[in-house]
Amino acid sequence: MAITEDEARKVAHLARIAVDEADLPGLAQELNGILHFMEQLNEVDVTDVEPMTGVEPMRLKRREDVVTDGDMQDLVLKNAPDAREGFFAVPKVVE
């Protein structure tokens, strides 16, 4: 399958990319190269290959899932314009 200049123009329009008429042959050639590479990838047999999340097999570093308050109450409340009794104080919204 080959991409023509008209199809390249349509793709550029759909992608909302402004392409000069003089650049359309080059764009069509690049799109043809991408499609050719995709055809090569489709020829590879991957039936027994596990999906990968990266190129190196690594385990994620894990930590114990423990709920804490962060022990930073004073630092957090220092940024508040109004804090009372260890909480943010906000204006009353509903009466």
Automatic annotation (TrEMBL):
It comes from the Bacteria. GO terms for molecular function: ATP binding; glutaminyl-tRNA synthase (glutamine-hydrolyzing) activity; transferase activity. GO terms for biological process: glutaminyl-tRNAGln biosynthesis via transamidation; regulation of translational fidelity; translation. It catalyses: L-aspartyl-tRNA(Asn) + L-glutamine + ATP + H2O = L-asparaginyl-tRNA(Asn) + L-glutamate + ADP + phosphate + 2 H(+); L-glutamyl-tRNA(Gln) + L-glutamine + ATP + H2O = L-glutaminyl-tRNA(Gln) + L-glutamate + ADP + phosphate + H(+). Its EC number is 6.3.5.-. InterPro entries: Asp/Glu-ADT_sf_sub_c, GatC. Keywords: ATP-binding, Ligase, Nucleotide-binding, Protein biosynthesis, Transferase. Allows the formation of correctly charged Asn-tRNA(Asn) or Gln-tRNA(Gln) through the transamidation of misacylated Asp-tRNA(Asn) or Glu-tRNA(Gln) in organisms which lack either or both of asparaginyl-tRNA or glutaminyl-tRNA synthetases. The reaction takes place in the presence of glutamine and ATP through an activated phospho-Asp-tRNA(Asn) or phospho-Glu-tRNA(Gln). HAMAP family: GatC. Heterotrimer of A, B and C subunits. Belongs to the GatC family. This is Aspartyl/glutamyl-tRNA(Asn/Gln) amidotransferase subunit C. It comes from Paracoccus halophilus.
